[in-house]
Amino acid sequence: MTKKELNESTAYLQSKGFDKPEIGIVLGTGLGKLADQIEDPIVAHYNHIPFFPLATVEFHSGKLIYGTIEGKKVVVMQGRFHLYEGYDFIDVTYPIRVMHQLGIEKLFISNAAGAINLDFKKGDLMLIEDHINLQGGSPLAFKSVGEYGERFADMAEPYDVDMRQKLVAIAKNENITLRQGVYASVVGPQLETKAEYRMLGILGADAVGMSTVPEVIVANHLNLPIVAVSVLTDECDPDNLKPVNVEEIIEVANKAEPKMVKLFKELIKKI
């Protein structure tokens, strides 16, 4: 990644009409429907954007969509990148840096995750309060990082308190169950063993997934306020562990998705 590459990616999108979006949104596995809410959409496929990685996961569609939701200009990532696809941390977080250069002032992130906290149920939403990075690296660990921001980025409060409070109030008002907890990010793509689920519980994780944390680290590096919501698609009980069915995970995410769309739309209204 170079400044020249970032500038070329940004210039291409601006030439397509991506004009000063206020909010960036990253849509996770099975959570693409928010894109249907965008008015006057302009679409840029990842394979047309200079220096952009390509999404290789079949249920990640791979396009950046610009338009309006609830009167605010947004840019939505429909399809994200993961370490398990063979990308590095720079690739995975490149779109966050591009959205920031386009002008976003806030970042919303969604993902599908497994529930470690057994009080949480399949189909619940969880507001991420904090995270544990178990991916074995950092998107800030490169020589020229100082050109992009403070090398030693502070992570005392990586998820914006004000937006979190607003989401809690919205969920209460809309009668949506919104859990709150700690998200652990692992590399994947294999699912966890029983012993690993026990370890994650001991570490203090409420949910586990394979994304989000690198994007959050870079957003903090760029001083972008973030809010993140997990759709809990399976229950990771090590004492009653059954083989995971990926199709079922997608189905659970699809069923829970309208609740997440409602939360994000209402939050867009209020900020």
From TrEMBL:
What is the purpose of this protein?
Answer: The purine nucleoside phosphorylases catalyze the phosphorolytic breakdown of the N-glycosidic bond in the beta-(deoxy)ribonucleoside molecules, with the formation of the corresponding free purine bases and pentose-1-phosphate.
**PANTHER family assigned:** METHYLTHIOADENOSINE/PURINE NUCLEOSIDE PHOSPHORYLASE, PURINE NUCLEOSIDE PHOSPHORYLASE-RELATED
What UniProt keywords apply to this chain's record, in alphabetical order? Glycosyltransferase, Transferase
Report the EC number(s), separated by commas if there are several: 2.4.2.1
> Which residues are in coiled coils?
none
- Put simply, this protein is called Purine nucleoside phosphorylase
Mention any one GO cellular component term assigned to this protein in its UniProt record. cytoplasm
Q: Name one GO molecular function term.
A: purine-nucleoside phosphorylase activity
Q: Which CDD domains match?
A: PNP-EcPNPII_like
Q: What protein family is recorded? A: Belongs to the PNP/MTAP phosphorylase family.
Q: Name one Pfam family in it.
A: PNP_UDP_1
State the pathway, as annotated in the record: Purine metabolism; purine nucleoside salvage
Give the enzyme class: transferase
**Occurrences of domain Nucleoside phosphorylase (ranges):** 22-269
Instruction: Name a biological process GO annotation.
Output: nucleoside metabolic process
